[in-house]
Design brief:
single chain, about 425 residues, Cytochrome Bc1 Complex, Chain D, domain 2, two-stranded antiparallel sheet, 2 strands, binds heme C
């Protein structure tokens, strides 16, 4: 009896701890990097002191600060922000280099503690790496997938504990009655947390609420992770598809050479840009500024028209826009070469976009609908030789059209690993 009661209150305590944990956990995974207190502090300091000369993604009086935390170590940044001129005068090579690059403009010295500089750097880091999504949620690597798995795990444990408590309650309840009956008297019972849990209704309601909440969170996160229609992150170089693919009529596949042959369409490397930009040093909108970033990435010396020897190349860090979940298989070649679809069917009028964005939803319904409705063109397409049966049925008039669905395009395993 006593042992049972003790076990019961221990379980109740454990349950309470678990539920608190769960609440905290769900709270912290609902928090986006832009709600983090360090970020907010950094934002305030940055806006008060730095915005007159710096932006994160664009050059102003001083350089764009995106990625600056990778360019230098923290010690360098602390000294630079506290007194850049002292570093230039002391002949620090990086300091002298950037100072000369900006024709000797002097950056203000700031007497602020390292911890505040760290906050500013955190702000710059989030602004650089975490794209702004319409609903404010984080995406990509920063998305809280692990958090939700942890929450589910804890919720399951909580449910098991609830069930054990329920059983124990029944047992003690019965034992209590037996004792009372035997002694012929009423034993006053102490109120315990367990009593609250005695009612089946409370248990059912609580578990239901928990399941709905966790379920909702998981689905919500999964959807945010997988797709973001209209997603349009700021890119490290203001590359315009309108200017290149539209006005200058450069073929999509000149740059996205993978689309015809492989799974991935691929983003061109800086070498591809250099095919033209060795000669084209100035653009109509940004002058030399944006094109200079290509040179900076690859190590091209504009004055001497030569690659700088021993230069440590930095790949241009384009931010990926389209991103299917890992469990989905999609091949460009299958659609572009075999299916003979235009890029624009899925990506919209890219040649009119100054900045590309995700035009289609990339949801499963989008893929499946097109497969149901799109006819495959058997004429003169060697790729379809294998479908002898359809060829014959088409000839005999038995079949008027063949859709992607007919060749197996809505079978689960065609799209899922
Ligand atoms: C008065 C204008 C001005 C202000 C205000 C200013 N900067 Fe600067 N900053 C510059 C200039 C100009 C440069 C380029 C180097 C030079 O000419 O000294 C620079 C360079 C830098 C660099 C080196 C960037 C690189 O790519 O090498 C960092 C980091 C930096 N600033 C951070 C900050 C931070 C953080 C603040 C706010 C706390 C700030 N700056 C405020 C003008 C300013
Ligand atoms: C001169 C080279 C060049 C040409 C020509 C070009 N692109 Fe691009 N494309 C890029 C670069 C660089 C990026 C990455 C930067 C960006 O997203 O703007 C990109 C990105 C994209 C993306 C987004 C990729 C992602 O991250 O998910 C799509 C879609 C795309 N291009 C489609 C097209 C289509 C369609 C055409 C033809 C109408 C085309 N491109 C022509 C260079 C090119
Ligand atoms: C096939 C030739 C070609 C290739 C390849 C090419 N560009 Fe260009 N680029 C041009 C032309 C043409 C212009 C416009 C020049 C003008 O109108 O004065 C231009 C202009 C630009 C501008 C200036 C924009 C402005 O309005 O100031 C940028 C930035 C640029 N390109 C980036 C890139 C990048 C990044 C790549 C590689 C992913 C690339 N280009 C590949 C031909 C090319
Ligand atoms: C049937 C629809 C469809 C067509 C047609 C299509 N794409 Fe895509 N594209 C996608 C999907 C879906 C993704 C996302 C793939 C992923 O995340 O694995 C994508 C991704 C991309 C990317 C990002 C890099 C990559 O390959 O994952 C580029 C660039 C791109 N497409 C360019 C093109 C170009 C250029 C064409 C035309 C030659 C084209 N696409 C035709 C659906 C399409
Ligand atoms: C605009 C129409 C369209 C959209 C959207 C589309 N597809 Fe397709 N898909 C086709 C066509 C047409 C073919 C036939 C090409 C062929 O013969 O393999 C095809 C074929 C396929 C095949 C090969 C089927 C087979 O039986 O060999 C796979 C796998 C596939 N698509 C996956 C996807 C996925 C995944 C998506 C969504 C991310 C998608 N497709 C979106 C039109 C589309
Ligand atoms: C034509 C391609 C295609 C076919 C066929 C297909 N799927 Fe999908 N499926 C997808 C894509 C793309 C996604 C990712 C959607 C997203 O991120 O919202 C997906 C997502 C899913 C998901 C994850 C839930 C979600 O919304 O993220 C499940 C489960 C799933 N598919 C099951 C199936 C089953 C079962 C079948 C067979 C009846 C099937 N799929 C057939 C393309 C396909």
């Amino acid at each position: 009896m006593k042992i049972l009661c003790n076990t019961k209150s221990r379980i109740a305590g454990l349950l309470l701890i678990l539920l608190t944990f769960l609440a905290l956990q769900t709270n912290s995974f609902a928090q986006t990097p832009r709600e983090d207190p360090v970020y907010l502090k950094g934002e305030t300091i940055f806006k008060a002191n730095c915005t007159s000369c710096h932006k994160v993604h664009d050059k102003l009086v001083g350089p764009a600060l995106a990625g600056v935390y990778d360019k230098y170590d923290s010690e360098w940044l602390y000294s630079w922000i506290k007194n850049s001129q002292a570093m230039v005068e002391a002949g620090d090579p990086d300091a002298v280099k950037i100072f000369n690059e900006y024709n000797g403009s002097v950056m203000t010295a700031f007497n602020i503690p390292n911890e505040e500089i760290d906050a500013v750097l955190q702000y710059i880091k989030v602004e650089t790496e975490v794209p702004v999504v319409a609903d404010g949620g984080p995406i990509g690597e920063n998305a809280p997938q692990e958090g939700s798995q942890m929450a589910i795990f804890l919720a399951i444990i909580a449910l098991i504990l609830l069930a054990i408590m329920f059983i124990l309650n029944r047992v003690t309840g019965t034992l209590n009655e037996l004792v009372r009956e035997k002694m012929g008297m009423l034993v006053p019972e102490k109120w315990t947390f367990g009593d609250l849990m005695k009612s089946k209704k409370v248990i059912t309601l609580a578990s239901l609420a928990l399941i709905i909440f966790v379920g909702y969170k998981t689905v919500d996160n999964a959807q945010r992770l997988g797709r973001q229609q209209n997603y349009q992150p700021a890119q490290p170089i203001k590359f315009s598809h309108e200017l290149h693919a539209g006005i200058n009529e450069i073929e999509c596949q000149y740059c996205h050479a993978g689309a015809a042959k492989g799974k991935s369409a691929m983003i061109p490397s800086a070498n591809v840009c250099m095919n033209c930009h060795k000669a084209i040093k100035e653009g109509p909108k940004y002058g030399t500024e944006e094109i200079a970033k290509i040179y900076n990435a690859i190590g091209w010396d504009v004055e001497n028209q030569a690659y700088i020897e021993g230069y440590e190349q930095k790949p241009i860090e384009w931010i990926r826009i389209h991103n299917l979940p890992d469990h989905v298989y999609f091949s460009h070649a299958q659609h572009v070469t075999a299916g003979q679809l235009e890029c624009q069917t899925c990506h919209g009028e890219v040649q009119e976009m100054e900045e590309v964005y995700q035009y289609s939803s990339l949801g499963m319904g989008w893929c499946v609908n097109c497969h149901r409705n799109t006819e495959v063109d058997f004429k003169g397409n060697d790729y379809y030789q294998i479908y002898e049966k359809f060829h014959e049925q088409m000839k005999s008039g038995e079949m008027k059209k063949v859709t992607v669905e007919d060749i197996g395009g809505v079978e689960c395993q065609k799209c899922h690993y």
